[in-house]
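Lab notebook page, bench 4
Experiment: in silico fold of construct C2
Operator: M.H.
Input chain length: 92 residues
Purpose: comparison with the prior construct
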Amino acid sequence: MEILRTVEDPELGMDIVDLGLVYEAEIVDSTARVTYSLTSMGCPAGPLIAQDMDSAIRQVEGIENVELELVFDPPWTPDKMSDDAKFILGFG
C-alpha cells in the first residue's frame, strides 16, 4: 500500500491512497493484486493512473506480476478520502 502513495491522480495532484481510490491491495506469492476505482467512469487520467500503479508496484522487491482490477461498485465518493485529503481539497 505504501508504494501506491507514490502514484498521484494528475488532475487532483494527490496520491491515490489518500484519495481513497485503492480499495484493496494484497500480495499472494509474487503477485500483487490491487482493486481500485476512479473518481468517475470517464476519468481521462484512468489509463495513466493504471500505468503508474503497475510501474510503482513492480519496483517492490519480489513482485513478479501485477493484477489491477478497476471497479465502480462500490462507487467512489469523497467520503473515502483521508481526512488530510478532504481538508486540502476543501471537503471538510
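Observations: Residues 46-57 form the longest helix (12 residues). The longest strand covers residues 22-28.
Next step: discuss at group meeting.
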